[in-house]
Design a protein that fits this description.
Strand content: 5-15%
Structural class: mainly alpha
Shape: globular
Oligomer: single chain
Helix content: 25-40%
Number of helices: 5
Bound molecules: zinc ion
Number of strands: 2
């Protein structure tokens, strides 16, 4: 009998636990108060979990203030594009679009 199990995967964007955007935008290595962010939310949240389309963020880059991805579409888009690029290292663009529903590499 097969056990039904939800798929979980480690982040495909980072191997270690640090704020992805502190590193990416400010060249800082921040490890305090991190929260896990699912890069494609809403109906795609469980897909993000299953495929590792997630990253660690500090509070200021996650939910609190003007630089937080949940308030700042520009920063959210950086993550979406880099997650797509990471996914496309092992998949085709068609597979990404089929999975997530759109192509984030076009502006
Ligand atoms: Zn940060
Ligand atoms: Zn989040």
């Amino acid at each position: 009998m097969e056990k039904k199990q939800k798929k979980h995967k480690k982040s495909i964007l980072q191997q270690e636990k640090y704020c992805y955007l502190c590193d990416r935008l400010d060249h800082k290595y921040m490890v305090r108060g991190l929260q896990e962010h699912h890069i494609f939310g809403g109906p795609n949240r469980s897909i993000s979990e299953a495929e590792g389309l997630k990253c660690w963020l500090c509070l200021e880059h996650h939910t609190q203030g003007p630089e937080a991805v949940h308030n700042n579409i520009r920063n959210a888009r950086i993550l979406q594009q880099e997650a797509q690029q990471a996914y496309e290292r092992t998949h085709t663009r068609e597979e990404f679009v089929r999975l997530i529903g759109r192509n984030y590499m076009v502006t």
